[in-house]
Design goal:
Elements (H helix, E strand, L loop, with lengths): L1 E11 L6 E4 L1 E5 L2 E2 L11 E5 H11 L12 E4 L10 E4 L2 E8 L4 H6 L3 H4 L8 E7 L1 E4 L3 E4 L1
Parallel strand pairs: 5-6
Antiparallel strand pairs: 1-2, 1-6, 1-11, 3-4, 3-10, 5-9, 7-8, 7-11, 8-9
Length: 144
């Protein structure tokens, strides 16, 4: 079992809109309450802080993790090949459904980013909510 920390939470205010950082949020069966994209098999998107740092270093950029447009940034957790595993954040549980593929918005954010993200789950993971509740930056995160 890997353990880590919830480093950031981002809520998308509108489809294609800005990712707003917040210090806490509520997860329900459809994803993050207040997020524009809710429901379905990609209810929540997650990226690894360590993998993000590798990608940004590789392409020589200084863009921040919100450019990835994922909901949650975790540290200490390797998301690669995590399909089917459970990500626990505080008292909540997310079921990892698979790898999030990078779209053309990543290329707009930084040249070379979309291509760099195609290996080793660089785009992060998507998940459904198995157990909802409140989450906050700093919460313990486990993957098992």
């Amino acid at each position: 079992m890997a353990t880590g920390r919830l480093e950031a939470i981002y809520i998308k205010r509108a489809h294609g809109g800005v990712m707003d950082p917040t210090t806490d949020a509520v997860l329900d069966e459809r994803g993050l309450v207040g997020n524009a994209n809710r429901g379905g098999f990609r209810a929540v998107t997650i990226i690894s802080a360590e993998r993000w740092t590798e990608l940004i270093t590789e392409i020589g950029s200084s863009i921040t993790p919100d450019a990835r447009r994922a909901n949650l940034l975790v540290s200490g957790i390797n998301l690669e090949n995590s399909r089917g595993l459970t990500l626990t954040i505080g008292s909540t549980e997310l079921r990892i459904g698979g790898e999030t593929r990078p779209c053309e918005l990543m290329e707009e954010a930084a040249p070379g980013l979309q291509e760099a993200m195609k290996s080793r789950w660089g785009g992060g993971a998507y998940a459904t909510v198995r157990q909802g509740g409140r989450i906050a930056v700093g919460d313990l995160v486990t993957l098992a």
